[in-house]
Design goal:
The chain contains 3 helices and 5 strands. It has 97 residues and is an alpha+beta fold. A hairpin with a 2-residue loop joins β2 and β3.
Length: 97
């Protein structure tokens, strides 16, 4: 399954901290502001590029110099929480962007 970022969500770095900020009505689908860590911010940027999930995993593995298996273990909870929170949209729901 692939994912896209919800339209109207921007990633901001503020004093070394990262936050997803909902603008342009996106707050109807998710919290207005959500703080995320640097690894989640990196993954978010990959999804913003429109990369498919397998490529996001490969890019993250290369970036952090870890195995793809290790990335899968970490990305699964990220995907679940970001989807549940409304920031990421599974591919079959993309018409809802």
């Amino acid at each position: 399954m692939n994912y896209t970022t919800r339209s109207g969500i921007i990633l901001e770095e503020i004093c070394g901290e990262y936050a997803l900020i909902a603008v342009r009505g996106a707050w109807e689908h998710c919290k207005a502001i959500s703080r995320i860590n640097a690894q989640a911010a990196y993954l978010w940027q990959l999804f913003e590029k429109g990369l498919p999930l397998d490529q996001v995993v490969a890019e993250a593995a290369a970036h952090y110099n870890i195995s793809e298996e290790a990335v899968w273990k970490g990305i699964t909870p990220f995907l679940e929480s970001m989807t549940e929170a409304g920031y990421l949209i599974p591919a079959e729901d993309n018409q809802d962007r």
